[in-house]
Design brief:
- With 352 residues, this protein is α+β, with helices and mostly antiparallel strands.
- Helix content is 38%, strand content 18%.
- The chain has a seven-stranded mixed beta sheet, sandwiched between helices. A three-stranded antiparallel beta sheet has the order 9-8-10, with no helix packed on it. A two-stranded antiparallel sheet has the order 1-12.
- The protein binds nicotinamide-adenine-dinucleotide (NAD).
- The site of nicotinamide-adenine-dinucleotide has 25 residues, from strand 5, strand 6, strand 7 and helix 9.
Amino acid sequence: MIVLTHGLLRAVAARILSAAGAAEADAATVADHLVDANLAGHDSHGVAMVPYYVRAIGAGVLDPRAHAAVEDGGGPALAVDGRSGFGQVVAREGIAAGIARARAGGVVAVALRDAFHVGRVGAYAEQAAAAGLASIHLVNVVGHAPFVAPFRGTDPRLSTNPFCVGVPGPDGRPALLLDFATSHVSYGKVRNAYAAGAPAPPGALIDARGRPTDDPSVMFVEPKGAMRPMGEYKGYGLALACELLAGALAGGGTLPRVPTADARITNNMVSILLDPARFPGGPSFAAEIAEGIRWVKASPPADPAQPVLVAGEPEAAARAARLAGGVPVPEAIWEEIRAAGRAVGAAEIEAG
Ligand SMILES: NC(=O)c1ccc[n+]([C@@H]2O[C@H](COP(=O)([O-])OP(=O)(O)OC[C@H]3O[C@@H](n4cnc5c(N)ncnc54)[C@H](O)[C@@H]3O)[C@@H](O)[C@H]2O)c1
């Protein structure tokens, strides 16, 4: 493991993505998003994605120059075509357009289709919260083979479909930032266990006959099994809600209807933006949120060393620690990033 500063990671990611074809400003947007995911402690959605994006550009499934096309028909939904561009660029553009509409009308649903990997969904809830808006995001993942079996099923039919809710706080940051994959654990955790020859987290997997297993090879070696959804049938239900609403409302399609290609990760995302000031509870909203959070956090912890937290706090703590102490990056990932840079002719930045 090597420890690198966020500034160095940002510079390396931006340089490689711009050498791979992105305009400088867009490369910076993507690099900022990836490094912020690392800072938040979600390394699966951090700079480790750079080699993946470079391959996707080479394979012609990610257009590094594309920008969102916002199709505003004036109704409650704002359709946004991501045109296979960087999700971090086109989703930001779509949410920015949605923020303007939500300010005017109180509520809007941004229906983004055909974005290449939007990354850490919480970033869009933070964007909305910075504008004082609450937001709910449902995301499906199409374009590559599924990983997650439906509850009682034995083969993968869904992806890790993330779900996210952001509640704005008084300081422009979310007071609550709930943001998770609907699989029991992220795919990255299973892949890492397989690479390390370690067991997968308990409860994460089933084998090809649907029996629980901690053997991560079931995801990589025939006969393949599948990942389990989080929370049994409830998580399965939420994953399916993301699949159906994101795929069908945004118009990008659900898994069985979208052709798959190696290196492709397409996200469709329906984001509902709500301006609390336009709701009946608007005048007391900030006080209610503060009191509701104070109330749950006052529960005596089972373990005094582990107080009750509110979603978003673990990421804020990771960010503070990693801003100060650096971001740990496995050597193998760092080497992959450097190799991706060499492949597109980016000048190297030394880690030292
Ligand atoms: N773009 C995509 O296709 C895609 C697909 C899957 C996941 N993702 C992203 O991957 C990231 C990681 O997802 P994950 O499922 O591994 O996350 P996770 O399992 O770490 O769960 C994270 C959520 O749980 C909350 N949390 C953690 N510990 C807590 C505690 N003690 N008390 C209260 N809340 C707590 C966090 O604040 C956060 O909201 C997310 O940002 C998600 O958006 C993206």
